[in-house]
Amino acid sequence: MRRILATAVVAILAAGMVGLGVWQLRRLSERRAHNAEIVLRMAEPPISLNDPISNVQSLDFHSVVVEG
Asked: 66, 53 in Cβ contact below 8 A?
């Protein structure tokens, strides 16, 4: 009986570890996509903040120029 319980616990723990590994790989993929977006936005020419801005969210990770 004790051996069956130990085997069940090990199987549950192994399944949990595999699930966590898959989660980490998915998270890595999402992080790489996010980092690629940041690199692309930072490579674009700077935006002047003296002009009116319709969408503030578009400034995320973007270079800006301010005069004043």
From this structure: no
Percentage of the chain with pLDDT > 90? 62
- With a CB cutoff of 8 Å and minimum separation 6, the contacts of 50 are 66, 67, 68
Report the C-alpha gap between 33 and 60 in whole angstroms: 15
Give the residue-averaged pLDDT of 9-20: 98
- Would you place residue 53 in the very low, low, confident or very high pLDDT band (cuts 50, 70, 90)? confident
Buried residues in 9-48 as b, exposed as e (16+ CB within 10 A): eeeeeeeeeeeeeeeeeeeeeeeeeeeeeeeeeeeeeeee
Q: Label the pairing between strands 47-48 and 64-65.
A: parallel
Residue carrying structure tokens 């020419």: 45
